[in-house]
């Protein structure tokens, strides 16, 4: 039995998580992410998080649940503000990112528990099949958003920890980040369609473009850490997504 087919309670939790992933990774601009010390960036971000959550709970909507969702959005903003108030190095490091995401998920779990155990869920506005499709679509969209944007932060953090002093000359500014996003997106698609061998072709194609540079051992270490971390994220996200939306695979 998959999470999205296990009933309205599990569907609500999946929608809350999907709302967070979309609000934090798909709808948050780089300027918003960098400027959360300022109200003009933090407030729109919180607003988008709130609207995303409200849009996704429509199949299970009630005014009480909507109120809890608004509290979740405000808590999201408070967590982000606390993180932004730290030093730049701490606020943008791998540890800060992981603590930030754990805090957000903890709030979602608390909100879910309050709704399920104290408020109660209304009858879904969709059929069982319709709710399954809706939740699956939300999870897929959220997974791709996290895989692209959140994955970039994770890869940068791992490189900073394990490849100190090594830098990749990106050439065109931002090209390295874009290549990583495309790499993880393609990797996630290949996992979802079961084309594991094609992932190796993806790695080989990327390596050919860096053939001469890979002769430098220091650069090759940097390259392997970044590439393998990036693909590992895509594989983990893909397997988790398959476990949630497709029965009998895991």
Question: Your description of this structure?
Answer:
The protein has 250 residues and is mainly alpha-helical. It folds into 2 domains: 125 residues, no CATH class; 92 residues, no CATH class. It is built from 10 helices and no strands. α7 runs antiparallel to α10. The radius of gyration is 20 Å and the shape is globular. It starts with 7 loop residues before the first helix and ends in a 5-residue tail after the last helix. 31% of the residues are buried. The model has no long low-confidence stretch (mean pLDDT 87).
Features:
0% strand; mainly alpha; 10 helices; 250 residues
Topology:
Elements: H1 8-26, H2 30-34, H3 39-56, H4 63-84, H5 88-91, H6 94-119, H7 128-162, H8 175-192, H9 196-209, H10 217-245
Helix pairs in contact: 1-3, 1-6, 1-7, 3-4, 4-6, 7-8, 7-10, 8-9, 8-10
Tell me the Rg in angstroms: 20 Å
**Largest sheet geometry:** none
Beginning-to-end CA distance, first to last residue: 11 Å
The proportion of residues forming helix, as a percent range, comes to over 70%
Order of helices and strands: HHHHHHHHHH
Domains, number: 2
Helix/strand class: mainly alpha
For the secondary structure, the number of strands is 0
Number of helices: 10
Average pLDDT over all residues: 87
Shape: globular
**Contiguous uncertain segments of 5+ residues:** none
How much β-strand is present in the residues? Answer: under 5%
